Amino acid sequence: MCQSEWMDFRSQYSSFVSLQTTPLWTGGLDNTVRSWDLREGRQLQQHDFTSQIFSLGYCPTGEWLAVGMESSNVEVLHVNKPDKYQLHLHESCVLSLKFAYCGKWFVSTGKDNLLNAWRTPYGASIFQSKESSSVLSCDISVDDKYIVTGSGDKKATVYEVIY
């Protein structure tokens, strides 16, 4: 196995969405979200924000991209249309985002100790849970039945999703 640097996305990019998505989405400290065509090595889209980008989540349906920001906001962008939703439930920066595999909902976590679950794409609040410290990361099981979070007090929490 061999590893080589193929494409340089410059150091200002702090977040990216899995290479399994096409195109690749990046976001970073320069307040910009970009999409890239990896085959041609060129930028496809650019979205400018007023805050640093701390996290990205790509919906499995291929229609929506959630952007978590230092300003505590989450914005949900349609990847092919100008549709955009601004969501405000966090009290501090948004550290991670993850869409359910069904694409109907997603979660966000933050420095404010909160786990928020939102309806895709418009952001109706489904539930909110307060943890004991900053919630640094999250993931959702492939069957959408469990959410796991990792927090600043070195604790993982597993939530069962019942609906």
From TrEMBL:
Family listed: Belongs to the WD repeat Groucho/TLE family.
Xref: Gene3D superfamilies: YVTN repeat-like/Quinoprotein amine dehydrogenase
GO biological process annotation, one example: negative regulation of canonical Wnt signaling pathway
The entry's keywords: WD repeat
Listed name of the protein: Transducin-like enhancer protein 1
UniProt xrefs under InterPro entries: Groucho_enhance, WD40/YVTN_repeat-like_dom_sf, WD40_repeat_dom_sf, WD40_rpt
Entries under Pfam families matching the protein: WD40
rRNA processing listed as a keyword: no
The WD repeat ranges on this chain: 24-46
GO annotation, cellular component aspect: nucleus; transcription regulator complex
Gene Ontology MF term list: transcription corepressor activity
